[in-house]
Amino acid sequence: YAMLVALLYLLYYSFCNHGAMAFCGALVFALEPCHYLTVRWPASRNDIICATFLVASFICYIHFCKKRRILYSTLFILSYLLALLSKELAFLFPVLIVAYDWIQYKRFKEIVKCHWNVYLPLLIINSIYFAFYHAYAWWTSSNWRVKYFRPLATFSHLIDYSIWGRNPLPYHINNVIWYAMLVALLYLLYYSFCNH
């Protein structure tokens, strides 16, 4: 969750180039009470993992649009793949990319001309994922059917179970400590911006 908030700060900063505004946006997201259950409830961890990778992918896409370096393109695609492996909702991320480009360029022909090399890999990735997802659902039998294919979230739960076992108290204490560290980090970040 702390990584997601830090990435949101970077995303907001890349939009507005103003540190205080980006900090306020990240702070509002970090301290929003409705995120409490998402952070605290282990079963919703896939939402945080997916959002973290999607925000990282969007940041890399914005930097790729500005600098046209292959590193940003690779990180953009890799982050998108990891988000897609954590939750199916990431399947709609290309729509956000097209909407962002539409706002930037205003003309569809100009969008396709400038960013066809981004849209084509996203279309290929989504097609492969769609085919694999449905083949996976068909392959599992009706008696033992796994509803969702989320390997990253499953791996995260496996690590938690191997560390904490069935005792939820250390897990919740761990969440409280991380949340307190997040608030302290945001305070220090804000303090450093006020001094500059």
Descriptive report:
The chain is built from 9 helices and no strands. By secondary structure, it is mainly alpha-helical. The model has no long low-confidence stretch (mean pLDDT 76).
Tally of helical segments: 9
- State the order of secondary-structure elements, H for helix, E for strand: HHHHHHHHH
**Main sheet record:** none
Mean pLDDT: 76
Question: What is the structure about, briefly put?
Answer:
This protein is mostly helical and 196 residues long.
Structural key phrases:
9 helices, mainly alpha, 196 residues
Secondary-structure map:
Blueprint: H1 2-16, H2 19-31, H3 36-40, H4 45-67, H5 70-86, H6 93-105, H7 108-139, H8 151-164, H9 168-195
